[in-house]
Amino acid sequence: MNPRTVVITGAGSGVGRATAVLLAHAGWRLALVGRRAEALQETAALTGLPAAQCLVRPCDIGDANAVAAMAAEVLEAFQDVEAIVNAAGTNAPRRALEVLTLEDYHAMMNTNLHGAYYCAQAFLPHLRARGSGTIVNIVSDAGKQASPKAGPAYVMSKFGLAGLTQAINAEERTRGIRACAIFPGDIDTPLLDKRPVVPDATARARMMLPEDIAECVRLCLELPSRAVVEELVIRPR
């Protein structure tokens, strides 16, 4: 029996990387997707998987045509995909309405929302044909409540990602497909370096680690197919 296969976006760092390492150790085959080839290769090395079970595929997920090409390559390589984890996300230091540029606004929407939509649409025909599959979207607690800390573009993209998750469940559950939205609070990841005021070591020590969110992803993926975690909110203790 072939290993189960998962596509992970944002796999070059943070939650995406932690999820890749955890799922590799749990016996999954991986397609690692992200902008930076070097970072993806570093993640691949951390998984310990042979190249035949760990495909590194650089891709700008904000480009629908690039995502379609990536999906075709992944399906050609592995023949089957069971799960997609949309972990890619970005923000900008100048994020408040007063200073947010149109360029940064579109960059956030493209990565945080449009990219997840493109990836879902690229693999949904395959999931429908196989009659099962799981899509996990890493949202944020900013997708529950707006705050100046997150900024409007990030908040809008994350509310949209939560809506995409609900829409997939509403339309696809009868085909055996489920979608899970994870809403983390503060996580110590490289994304913190894009905050207007970068948290210091004391603040970071109070945050969750990417590995904590990876455990949530594994739960959503490995529950029996009769169950779906529609929403999971996790925050630092």
Give a structural overview.
The protein is of the alpha/beta class and 237 residues long. The protein has one domain (5-234): NAD(P)-binding Rossmann-like Domain (Rossmann fold, 3-Layer(aba) Sandwich), CATH 3.40.50.720. Helices cover 45% and strands 16% of the residues. It has helices spanning 14-25, 37-47, 64-78, 102-130, 152-172, 201-205, 210-222; strands at 5-9, 29-34, 54-58, 83-86, 133-138, 177-184, 231-234. The protein has a seven-stranded parallel beta sheet with strand order 3-2-1-4-5-6-7, with helices on both faces. α1 runs parallel beside α2 (37-47). The termini are far apart. The relative contact order is 0.15. The mean pLDDT is 97.
Give the topology, please:
Elements: E1 5-9, H1 14-25, E2 29-34, H2 37-47, E3 54-58, H3 64-78, E4 83-86, H4 102-130, E5 133-138, H5 152-172, E6 177-184, H6 201-205, H7 210-222, E7 231-234
Parallel strand pairs: 1-2, 1-4, 2-3, 4-5, 5-6, 6-7
Helix pairs in contact: 1-2, 1-7, 3-4, 4-5
What tags apply to this protein structure?
237 residues, alpha/beta, Rossmann fold, seven-stranded parallel beta sheet
